[in-house]
Amino acid sequence: MSQELYFNIITFDLPDKPITFYLSKEKIGNAQKLYKTKFPTNIEELFPGIKEENPDFIYTSFIYEKEGYHPLSLNLKEQPTDLIKHYYNWRIKKFFNSIKKLVGQNFVNDNQIWIGNRSYQNKSFAQYYKFTVKVQIKEVSEYGELVISYDGMAKVFKKPISEIIKHTSTTNLNKVVYKMRLLKYHKEKEFIDDNTKAFAILNNDLRNAFKIKPEPKDDSNKYIGYKNKIDKFIQHFILSDEFKKVIPVNNDDYLPVEINRIGEVTDESNDLLFQNGVGRNPKIDFKNLKPLNPCQLDNVHFFFIHHTSYAKEVEALQKLLEDGTSWYKGLNIYAGVLAHFDNDVNIVFDDLENPLPQISQGIKDFKSDPNINYVAIYLSPFNKHEPNLEKKLVYYKVKEQLLYKRIISQVIEFDRFRRNQHKFIYDLTNISLALLAKLDGTPWQLNVKPKNELVIGVGAFKNTEENIRYVASAFSFKNNGRFNEFHYFSKSDVKQLGNALSDAIWQYVPTNKSPEKIVIHFYKDMKDEEIQPVLEMMDKLQLPCPLFVLNINKTKSQDIIAFDQNWNGELIPMSGTYINIGPKGEYKYLLFNNLRYNNTVKYPSHSSYSFPIKLKISSPTPEALNDSKMIRKLIEQVYQFSRLYWKSLRQQNVPITIKYPEMVAEIAPRFESKEIPPFGQETLWFL
Q1: Which domains does the chain have, with CATH numbers?
Q2: Which residue of 6, 249, 458, 670 is surrounded by the most CB atoms within 10 Å?
């Protein structure tokens, strides 16, 4: 069955006739500020010599006459894209403000519209659905484009902040609603004249402070829910006569994806190599086809870290790991981990509220045998939603202290195990998978021919509590995805990053000679100063191979996606489909990675409904991008590397070259030393 793909885009016409903007060199009253990249192409007609003066900004009231502002006739089709987008974003914001809707902006200044859910009944909160209207100009069509996306929902306290701060600190406030405006409390509180009319938007800090349970996880098809939401938004607002007077929408339907923009990875890109054959779905194949390589370490001894009252549950958990059940056969048979449980070295604590001192002392006193590989199973009394930061930090500090003792660890939430031991076997499948990978086993690998390639991945995690973005870089030296080592940086440090990337090349070349190509998977656009050390190292080693940089982003909800209107109403494009979403000369793609294959009749239940990831491919030698076969191979490699995630049997859509560094960067900043012990750089301890 062929795909019928549509973007979440409504197109509009750019005006054929000139329009008049009003501009000034100085800001007079309220006005829009235009940076010099947005200056009209014919700005010299109005301000002769301004290009030579080279000011950073001028100001405009756009189409409204205003004292002190001068008219300039513009053909919008000949103007800078950034100026056109700014103009239409301004008009969209004015329209939704005029109909009394909350309008905010995302981090790239697109309009985000908040629509109240009148059917939501709750005495404490009002609920809003959030939609982004992103303006593009001739990116995937010959028209102006409105990318309409659903960004999830928000809850706003019905009590004003003057009331809620009686029960919590203002430090827990982030965004607030005040007089139909969305404000960042700590940056814009000077605009709030009356705290009795300002209402806080629920965030994680407030959720923890008021002990509000998180929303239950929704495992339903997110494509269907997403499209239903934007369908209603478009029908009610974008296709209204009033909106069309502002933005001349020219088609009431979603924009079809042109056939020449669509590609597919090879069918073989889905293949994974297990011990007893080739499979595609680890959730089924890991159990049936067995791990490719069982645990490679001898003398693996397990022990527990637990509270004194957990003895009964420890015994039950050990029995499950050793003997399993009728379905899960235990660590050895299921995952190839032959383990001995040494309860004589268990670390036991009796303080549930503050277990760390006793655990730390137990680890400090632990007498390890150099001939034994130890694994600690820590039954944590605190779950991942623990509101108390000190209790939450115990998890990280225990992991760090064990790493310094060269001990792998696996944390299990005690309450989760205690509540339903019968269903916990499904957790144990993922735990067993992760333990195998931590113990130098290979659950599965890509079914590809070995090639002399170097792939380097750099990912990041933003710690919202500290407002710092941490970076870690992971290296995979084989095209089959075999992990080698990683370097971690406590902050985004261009020099350290450049050194680590150069070091990856330096370490690779002596044993592998000149690679056919070097590929860097980067979590953002790579700056010149970040890539320069790589080029210098390649020059030093006289490497003639091409270098490719792939910027890889998880598709945010406020971005472009696509639906398949021709597959059982489930809307999910086929796995391995990629779509060129860039204008001519730009190598930008959506890549879909899921469990829908050529012969899939119905999407597997309880599986991940992943949105696509976004790729941007570049090279310091642009001619290297002229090879369409090479572009396809680079996309296929991203697709394949996403299938090597060994923390869970559930399909992922982000390659491990980005995901693993992100996981490291989430955990390591919590370490007391802010560093990772050398032992930790040789293992997948973070799974």
Answers
A1: 294-439 (3.40.50.2300), 445-680 (3.30.420.10)
A2: 458
